UniProtKB/TrEMBL annotation:
Pfam families named among the record's database cross-references: ABC_tran, oligo_HPY
Protein name as catalogued: Dipeptide ABC transporter ATP-binding protein
InterPro entries from the UniProt entry: AAA+_ATPase, ABC_transp_ATP-bind, ABC_transporter-like_ATP-bd, ABC_transporter-like_CS, Oligopep_ABC_C, P-loop_NTPase
Source organism (scientific name): Herbidospora galbida
Keywords linked to the UniProt accession: ATP-binding, Nucleotide-binding, Transport
Occurrences of domain ABC transporter (ranges): 9-261
Organism domain of life: Bacteria
GO BP field: peptide transport; transmembrane transport
Recorded GO MF terms: ATP binding; ATP hydrolysis activity
Similarity annotation: Belongs to the ABC transporter superfamily.
PROSITE patterns cross-referenced by the UniProt entry: ABC_TRANSPORTER_1, ABC_TRANSPORTER_2
Lineage: Bacteria, Bacillati, Actinomycetota, Actinomycetes, Streptosporangiales
Keyword Isomerase: no
Length: 338
């Protein structure tokens, strides 16, 4: 289904700074880890936004902010036009029903002492209005079937399932409250490559069946390519480039995106690799002390004086058709179209 209509999720200038403290008895704040530092985007009904960036760039913190599991330092999240207020219980409960999460690690995210039926049905304990007690078993069995598991296995325990099957259990649980939005935080990163495609195909099927909108987080551009309508690339707590999938993959304009893309192997029909390789120097700087101006400048081969002084805004620049946060943004086809 093509994404359409008003945004279902509106994120504006979202910031999460974790205080850095010193001292054990007399704690003093000596700084802050700028995990998420001014992130804005919209998500439409039925749309998938891929969010990509190296480990530590703030992807999971962003996910927790969207789920209202973390309180933002500043900024706002609206769902269906309504501001999410972590201080208003009724508002939060309704909101929590509508936005669910699928976690990264299917081995640790499921309680080993609970049966699959209890795990998937647990959200009904809080949201009793969705499934009265007598209906729950049937609802859970339906969910097992929807995600491609055997409904007769409702009384089994997580250890009796494979990694891919466990992730299906996590997805079934995410679907239990019939949400409109699912945040998938690296849902396939812990799975074998052969299983990854099956789980992604399942998520795509569920999306068209139930009109779900996804935020799909990954550390690698190759994983989100297939499923994303749009992609946001994050670096040190900020979005550095965002656009439609074709804009990001075929016409990347930010040096960081170009470097990430150059790490994705893409053979052409003759089996030859057609990508250009850009090797990034060093690791990302600490989010407690990000570089002045452009945060990517310490690793950027195009950096000029202005990059240390002036922060590049995320905007469409001449010669490009989507937003990029680089003073010298220019389209560069890293993966030469074959
Ligand atoms: N609860 C927390 N307290 C302090 N720092 C945190 C906390 N959660 C995450 N961080 C820090 O915030 C940064 C972003 O982390 P995270 O959102 O987990 O990144 P990602 O998911 O992209 O790997 C990291 O430097 C991490 O150490
Ligand atoms: S603004 Fe400067 S340092 Fe930042 S990505 Fe662009 S060229 Fe590189
Ligand atoms: Mg993470």
């Amino acid at each position: 289904m093509a994404p359409q209509g008003d945004p279902i999720l509106e994120v504006r200038d979202l910031v999460k700074h974790f205080p850095l403290t010193q001292g054990i008895v007399m704690k003093r704040q000596i700084g802050a880890i700028k995990a998420v530092d001014g992130v804005s985007f919209d998500l439409r009904r039925g749309e998938t936004l891929g969010v990509v960036g190296e480990s530590g760039c703030g992807k999971s913190t962003l996910a927790k902010l969207l789920m209202a599991l973390e309180k933002p330092t500043s900024g706002s999240v609206k769902v269906n036009g309504e501001l999410v207020d972590v201080h208003r219980g009724s508002n939060l409960k309704r909101f929590r029903r509508n936005i669910q999460m699928v976690m990264q690690d299917p081995y640790t995210s499921l309680n080993p002492r609970m049966t699959v039926g209890d795990i998937i049905g647990e959200p009904y304990e809080i949201h009793t209005e969705v499934a009265p007690k007598g209906d729950r078993r049937k609802k859970v069995q339906d969910l097992l079937e929807v995600v491609g598991l055997n409904p007769d296995h409702i009384n089994r325990y997580p250890h009796q399932f494979s990694g891919g099957q466990r992730q299906r259990i996590g997805i079934a649980r995410g679907l239990a409250l019939q949400p409109e939005i699912i945040i998938c935080d690296e849902p396939v990163s812990a799975l074998d490559v052969s299983i990854q495609a099956q789980v992604i195909n399942l998520l795509e099927r569920l999306q068209s069946e139930f009109g779900l909108a996804y935020i799909f987080i990954a550390h690698d551009l190759s994983v989100v390519r297939h499923i994303s309508d749009r992609v946001a690339v994050m670096y040190l707590g900020k979005i550095v480039e965002i656009g439609k999938d074709t804009e990001i993959y075929d016409k990347p304009s930010h040096p960081y995106t170009q470097a990430l893309l150059s790490a994705v192997p893409v053979p052409n029909p003759e089996g030859r690799e057609t990508r250009e390789r850009i090797i990034l120097q060093g690791d990302p700087p600490s989010p407690a002390n990000p570089p002045s101006g452009c945060r990517f400048r310490t690793r950027c081969w195009k950096a000029q004086e202005i990059c240390a002084v002036e922060e590049p805004l995320l905007q469409i620049r001449p010669g490009t058709d989507h937003e990029s946060a680089c003073h010298f943004a220019e389209v560069h086809d890293v993966v030469h179209a074959s």
